[in-house]
Amino acid sequence: MRYSQYFIPTVKETPADAEVVSHQLMLRAGMIRKLAAGIYNYLPLGLRSIRKVENIVREEMNRAGAIELLMPGVIPAELWQESGRWDQYGRELLRIRDRKDAEFCLGPTHEEVITDLVRREIKSYRQLPVNLYQIQSKFRDEIRPRFGLMRGREFIMKDAYSFDVDGDAADLSYEKMYQAYRRIFERCGLKFRAVEADTGSIGGSSSHEFMVLADSGEDAIASCNACDYAANVEKAETRPIEAAEHADPRPLERVPTPDKRTIGEVSEFLGVHEASMIKTLVLLADNEPVVALVRGDHELNEIKLKHVLDCDELEMANDEVVAKVTGAPVGFAGPVGLKVKIVADPAIKVIRNGVTGANEKDLHLKNVNLGRDFQVTTFADIRNAVHGDACPRCETGVLEMWRGIEVGHVFKLGTKYSKALKASYLDADGKEQIVFMGCYGIGIGRTVAACIEQNHDENGIIFPIPIAPFHCIISALNIKEEPVREASERIYKELSDAGVEVLLDDRDERPGFKFKDADLIGIPLRIVAGSKNLAQGNVELKDRKTGEVELLPVADAVAKVKALVAEALH
Ligand code: ATP
Ligand code: MG
Predict the structure, then answer these.
(1) Which residues are CB-neighbours of 301 under 8 A, at least 6 positions away?
(2) Whose Cα sits closest to atom 25 in ligand 1?
(3) What pairing do the DSSP bridges indicate for beta strands 130-139 and 67-68?
(4) If you take atom 4 of ligand 1, which residue's CA is the nearest one?
């Protein structure tokens, strides 16, 4: 490709509305342009990287025995009503009507469509197992689209669905996908980790997320420093904390705390440690008030609580509900005397002579003790794991915290969708059985963005060769000089003929200008062809990642680029 005839609208300044570095660099490098919130044009350079990731995904999916097809983006409402998700999925589902007033949605995920196809076409155990996948645009009306391709509303996903005769066979399909995902993200040159995850609105029995490690990641991950336990904090289990002291209960005391509402404010005001406080939160579970108790220095995990309560919707109560349940304004809630269901984290059990709200304005209670002063309906692990918690799996390890970007997610679905949509087959005895499913997603655009989060410097992107838009850029200094033009064209042809993807910067621009663009768009290898070096038969070869520059005879530079590219693609 010749730069002068191509379309790479680079930008010098950092765009003000881009918070994370991958978003900034993808805009600056002319890879993407925003059309509307969370909706982007993929410009030629961006599309090339997207296609690279798609092809790696495709090759590894095919290698693992999955078969590609393509489903529609527009889905009739009936299918989603049949699975029950039309009502459950909420406002992320973009619903539309056709001219006959029939309802449809833009597909955010395709369990319903694929299960419908399979229930019609697969009749016998002889046709199983089968794993079908597509690479397609999804639409999710995210509340907060941001970070460019990382959290868009329209985004490209690879989604695969496996169908098996029973749970054991489905576990094997899951394992194959898990291994394929490892290969995919390794080939993309990413530092990643597979972690246990919550199954969210997709459902199913268990799942793993593939997390690219990055400080800008929206997810928190806990991992053990001694064993291989790793989980999303949404899911990470905690071990009940042992009692550190066995103090005798002291008499309950009411203490004025004027305008002190938060755990931090009260702890400072009364001079008590946050760990001796009982944080009392009022929530609505399917519109019924419920109170959750966690230790003052811990955080409630709403996903865990939702599982404990087995409800469809869980949200923090508003001020009005809090006042109704506790009799006091927000900031003074406590479990003593409450008449609603109370779910407490086990860490509450070991608090002696604790501090909590008195359910009266500007008042807290001291020396509060479980059993004597308040009761709990249910104890359950409902808090977020924190740095230094004992590992829930091994005896010696403690948890460490990381941040990550979820690029892939694999789920064991069991029979959730096949039961709802009646996808069955006849077994060897002619008996009807329900199929077991798994589903497996990869965010293609998010993978490119995550790669840039991990691979950049102050000058721009540093693409790993496997997903770089081009492998090599030839910066022709002063293209008007005949020897430079001639040599650049020759190198361009030789590399292209050898299958190396080359961008020839043949623009009539100053060298500094060309180098800046080359660095910004992150092409891994750069050949600099200038008349001075060419007079000796040499060119410069620069490695974008290490910054190393070598002066080499033209033929050697060409051979080296070919070798480096071949090595990286294997
Ligand atoms: P998240 O928790 O980040 O919203 P999710 O759990 O909803 O993700 P899945 O339903 O598992 O995501 O979708 C499969 C993959 O699609 C994710 O692992 C992610 O890589 C990608 N993905 C999901 N939502 C988005 C989005 N809004 N923009 C870009 N990619 C996305
Ligand atoms: Mg989501």
Answers:
(1) 233, 234, 382, 383, 384
(2) 151
(3) parallel
(4) 151
pLDDT grade, residue 203 (50/70/90)?
A: confident
Regarding the beta carbon of 109 and ligand 1, being less than 6 Å apart is answered: yes
Verify whether ligand 1 is closer than 6 Å to residue 148 (CB atom).
Answer: no
Residue with tokens 């294997």: 570
Q: Between helices 44-63 and 444-454, what is the axis angle to 10°? A: 110
Cα–Cα distance, 518 to 543 (Å, whole number): 11
Nearest CA to ligand 1 atom 23: 443
Pairing of strands 154-164, 436-443: antiparallel
Q: Tell me which of 409, 410, 442 to substitute to probe ligand 1's pocket, judged by most ligand atoms within 8 Å of the beta carbon.
A: 409
DSSP code at position 349 = G
Model-level pTM greater than 0.90? yes
Average pLDDT over the chain, rounded to an integer: 96
Ligand of minimum distance to the alpha carbon of 140: 1
- Is the dihedral angle over the CA atoms 509, 515, 517, 523 positive or is it negative? positive
Taking CA atoms, 387 is separated from 297, 374, 560, in Å, by 12, 30, 46
**By alpha-carbon position, which residue is closest to atom 14 of ligand 1?**
441
Beta strands in 257-398 (DSSP E): 278-285, 288-295, 314-316, 342-344, 354-360, 363-368, 378-379
